[in-house]
Structures are given as C-alpha cells and as structure tokens.
Amino acid sequence: MAANASVTPTPSTGAAAPSVSPTSGGSSGGSVKLSALSKKSAGAKEFVPSWNKGPAPAGAAAATATATATSVPVKSPPPPPQSTSAGAIAASSAVVVDPNAPAYAMDIECVAIGMGHNDRAVAQIAVVDSNERVVLNCYVKPEQKITSYLSALTNLSPEKLAQGVSLTDAVAAVRRVLPSNAVLVGQNILKDISWIGLVEGKDFSAMQDLGGLWRVWNAKYQNFSQFSLGHECKCLLGYGQPEPHDAVSDSIVSMRLYLLHKKLSAGPASGLAAAQQSLMAVQPEPSFASRNPTLDGVCMGYKKTCKCGQPFLF
Ligand SMILES: [Zn+2]
User: For the chain, how many structural domains are there in total?
Assistant: First the structure.
C-alpha cells in the first residue's frame, strides 16, 4: 500500500490515500491555522515591509530585493489602491468564480529529460479536494529517457516511478476524479494544467492561481509583489515546507491557502489585509532554484543564473 505508485483514485466513500501524510493534522479547510497572521489591524496606510525599506530603484521595479518574490509587471496604470489593502483585494477578486463550485487543488512534479530548464516530463500528479482528501496520487513513467529525478526538489525516485502509468492513463484518471464544474487551485496552476492538457470549460470550470490571489500591492515599487508557495505557507499557515516536498503535500498546502483566502475574502477587509501584511513583513527565503542553479547538472531555470539558453515560458 505504502508505495502505491500507480493510479490510485480514492473511492468516493473512502478515506485519504494511505501513503499520504499531510504536513500537519487537520481534515478540513477549517483547520487552517491563522496563528501566523499578523494581529495588526487593517485599514493600513502605506505598508512598507521591513525587507523593502531601502530607496526605490530608478526606473522599473523589476529587481526587487528578494529572490522568490517576483514583481508582476503592470502595463497600464494599475488599479491604484486607495489604501494598499483595498487595492489588492479588488485586484485579487477580479476573477469571477462560482462560490458553490467544488474546489480541487492540483500539483504536478516533473523529472528532467534533458539538461535545460524546459526539459521536463510529468512524473507525479496529485489532486486534493476541499476536505484535504487525496482523490488522486498518480505516478507517471515518462516515455523519454530521464536525465534526473531532481529528487532533492521533487522527492521522486526510480522506485516511485517504477510502477508509474502512462501519461495518457494518468490524465484520464485526472478527468475521472474532476467534476466538470471543478475549480482548479494551485500555485501557477496554469502551468500544471498546460502540462497535462486539461481544457477549461470541459474538464474544469475555472482556475484559481494562488500567486495571483495572494499577491500584494507594493506601494514602494508601484506594482504587485507575488510570492512562492513556500512563503505563503510559512507566513499564512504558520509552518515551513520541508524539502523535498511532493505533489501531495503541495496540493494540501494549496488547498489550505485557497480556503483561507476565500474565508478572509468573505469577512471584514481587515482580515485579508492583515494576511497580506504578514506576507510582506517577512523577507522571502531564496528559492530552491536560486540556491541550486543546477541540480545533477540540469538547469533549474533561475533567470539570473540560467546558462542553458532555453526560453522562459511561464
Ligand atoms: Zn536554464
């Protein structure tokens, strides 16, 4: 049971897949920890994070002082926040999603099939429902030759993929567990959806990108700061993600972050504003790719040090 590597859709009446060990206890979105949230009330004026108090750079704000927080370029004047929090709330609520549609968090881990940062093949797909039940944890055996399992990042191994299924079978399994009105949730979820070719309006109804939901207006740079899943987990859920983490644990974190955002969005603005401030108050830790520009010789796609020359697609 433990090393169940093949497609393991959880029976509708069953419990979570056996090999799964959520990063902390709890069984529902209600278990989301709010302890890490700042108790500062909202209504905040111009919030300037401690790691962001230096002089603003001349010109574009692209090079913020963080490794994992990236600035989202804003083409035309952004929706200028009257107060920082209100602006960010408005921006992150722009996508209309049926509040009654069932949410599913999905995460995909890939192995390397070449030395460039785009040379990847799907190797694990996890889908978790809003009660943190693992409805799918599926290993995929790529057709291509694997150059690295990127184990330090993905927690994947030859043993896990040995019982993997074909990508076609894996994607079919995803389609079986997802209702057509599913809202797919994840950090940069579009990338995962693109990996396996799901179709919006057919396989699912809408997607919610946590990076977009939890972005925060940065008054200093006049653009939005966006954060990694690890930073969001640490600041909003109150615990760090140990490395390596995998598709299941990342999906559970994603679901908790989504439900937290949904809950706070439905409450007083001060709640969401406090959460946003907690994201800005802590300096993001360097990303895995910045600490490991290459892994087993494979480019990890850190823009500042990438030498493989492949384009950055996402
Ligand atoms: Zn590269």
Answer: 1
